[in-house]
């Protein structure tokens, strides 16, 4: 059977002029995404495969943490946003529209209002609590400066979760579980990140909140980390505990008062909030308590920018020649290149190997294009799939070249040995 995945290899030789970060350039050059309008992108098949891997990791960890998946509409009645008071807080970042009956809608930038209004009718006893729900869905924000491809889009993919409790103790317990789930997610994605105390911004709420910041020089956030205790905070938050104008330069840790603060740049990939009754209060979401008295639901919310996470992984994992995917999120595990597609021995051996890999569930991208060998090997470096197999001049001895994208060593091995190495 003909294998059709080589057409995925629509790489760009030149660096796109308007792509400012290394990650954005690589994502365009490797053919993961294509821009359709400012801050809007099509996920091409290779990019979508990575996104699906991220979704699978996030789903697994959310379910492990006791959250159940649902899906809310992207369009929300503007009236709900007026009730919560956020119609004005979000201001021009909110994308709005009217239907044929002249009713106003908001294209959801986040879903606190929507979930609160749904759950108000569903949760009818404190005995059902705690409950946590999550969804994976597009969000819309009319960002002033869409930037660096998927890092700051106007339409982007988010995993957002919401927890419901009868009291703050319950919220704190679930919050701790979600915090751990976030650490597991970012560890599994191979990210170098820090969890820091943060400012609640437009989400509001009166409890703690944390941002998960992936370290990167091109990041828009600045964090301060103590070199002696556990203290770590976004400078926006640090500013609250310091005198006006000193965050960014302050040397001494405000928590232990001994350690030195170190500053670094990063990308916000996740944000978790203890909202309390902010939304249940404004939207009137209550539940009858133990003594029959109605009390407002206590809530938490937890977001991860999945499309931003994809772009962040590329920012952290590349070299001069291209992307170096962490195995857990790679679009394919193996990139097999046939040097001379007109050579029947090479073709036959490559297809046999491909079929055997498929049988054991190893995802393989087969480059059987009639192109120069140099072009194909160059593309394999750029796309960055973890294991490379080159079927070339040693094919008549059933031998192939085997190498890892993350290392410089190559070896020529028998196909049986190559299979052994992969299993
Ligand atoms: P930022 O400070 O970068 O504008 P935010 O604080 O406004 O982000 P939240 O409201 O906390 O974002 O949303 C949860 C998550 O959604 C963020 O941690 C981030 O990963 C992601 N996110 C937010 N805005 C965007 C965007 N424009 N494009 C892609 N991902 C985004
Ligand atoms: Mg924002
Ligand atoms: Mg932020
Ligand atoms: Mg945030």
Automatic annotation (TrEMBL):
Instruction: Name the Enzyme Commission number(s) assigned to this protein.
Output: 6.1.1.15
Q: Which InterPro entries match?
A: aa-tRNA-synt_IIb, aa-tRNA-synth_II, aa-tRNA-synth_II/BPL/LPL, Anticodon-bd, Anticodon-bd_dom_sf, Pro-tRNA-ligase_IIa, Pro-tRNA-synth_IIa_bac-type, Pro-tRNA_synthetase
Broad class of the protein's primary localization: cytoplasm
Query: PROSITE patterns, from UniProt?
Result: AA_TRNA_LIGASE_II (PS50862)
Query: Which keywords appear in this protein's UniProt record, sorted alphabetically?
Result: Aminoacyl-tRNA synthetase, ATP-binding, Cytoplasm, Ligase, Nucleotide-binding, Protein biosynthesis
* One Pfam family named in its UniProt record: HGTP_anticodon
- List, alphabetically, the Gene3D superfamilies matched: Anticodon-binding domain, Bira Bifunctional Protein, Domain 2
| Places the protein is found | Cytoplasm
Domain Aminoacyl-transfer RNA synthetases class-II family profile as annotated: residue spans = 39-326
Superkingdom to which the source organism belongs: Bacteria
SUPFAM superfamilies linked: Class II aaRS ABD-related (SSF52954), Class II aaRS and biotin synthetases (SSF55681)
Q: What is catalysed by this protein?
A: tRNA(Pro) + L-proline + ATP = L-prolyl-tRNA(Pro) + AMP + diphosphate
Q: Which GO terms describe its molecular function?
A: proline-tRNA ligase activity
Subunit structure, per the record? Homodimer.
Q: What is this protein called?
A: Proline--tRNA ligase
Q: What is the lineage of its organism?
A: Bacteria, Bacillati, Bacillota, Bacilli, Bacillales
């Amino acid at each position: 059977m003909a294998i059709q995945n080589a057409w995925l290899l629509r790489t760009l030789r030149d660096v796109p002029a308007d792509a400012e970060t290394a990650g954005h350039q690589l994502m365009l050059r490797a053919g993961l995404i294509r821009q359709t309008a400012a801050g809007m992108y099509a996920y091409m098949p290779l990019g979508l495969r990575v996104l699906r891997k991220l979704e699978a990791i996030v789903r697994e960890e959310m379910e492990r943490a006791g959250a159940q998946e649902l899906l809310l509409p992207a369009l929300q009645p503007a009236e709900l946003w007026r009730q919560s008071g956020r119609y004005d807080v979000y201001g021009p970042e909110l994308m709005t529209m009217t239907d044929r009956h002249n009713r106003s809608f908001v294209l959801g930038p986040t879903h606190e209002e929507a979930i609160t209004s749904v759950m108000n009718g569903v949760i009818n006893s404190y005995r059902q609590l705690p409950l946590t729900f999550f969804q994976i869905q597009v969000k819309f924000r009319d960002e002033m400066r869409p930037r660096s491809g998927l890092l700051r889009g106007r339409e982007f993919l988010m995993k957002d979760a919401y927890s419901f409790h009868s009291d703050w103790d319950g919220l704190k317990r679930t919050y701790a579980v979600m915090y751990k789930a976030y650490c597991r997610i970012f560890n599994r994605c191979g990210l170098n990140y820090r969890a820091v105390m943060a400012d609640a911004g437009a989400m509001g709420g009166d409890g703690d909140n944390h941002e998960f910041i992936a370290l990167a020089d091109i990041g828009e956030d600045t964090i301060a980390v103590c070199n002696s205790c556990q203290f770590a905070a976004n400078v926006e938050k640090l500013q609250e505990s310091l005198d006006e104008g000193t965050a960014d330069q302050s040397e001494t840790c405000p928590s232990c008062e001994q350690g030195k603060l170190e500053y670094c740049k990063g990308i916000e990939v996740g944000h978790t909030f203890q909202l309390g009754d902010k939304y249940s209060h404004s939207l009137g979401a209550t539940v009858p308590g133990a003594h029959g008295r109605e009390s407002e639901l206590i809530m938490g919310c937890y977001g991860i920018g999945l499309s931003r996470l994809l772009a962040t992984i590329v920012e952290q994992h590349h070299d001069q020649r291209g992307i170096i995917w962490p195995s857990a999120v790679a679009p394919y595990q193996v990139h097999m290149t046939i040097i001379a597609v007109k050579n029947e021995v090479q073709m036959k051996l490559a297809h046999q190997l491909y079929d055997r890999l498929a049988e054991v569930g190893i995802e393989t991208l087969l480059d059987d294009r009639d192109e120069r060998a140099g072009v194909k090997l160059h593309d394999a470096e750029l796309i960055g799939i973890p294991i490379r197999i080159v079927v070339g001049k040693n094919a008549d001895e059933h031998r192939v070249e085997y190498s890892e994208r993350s290392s410089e060593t190559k070896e020529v091995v028998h196909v049986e040995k190559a299979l052994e190495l992969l299993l």
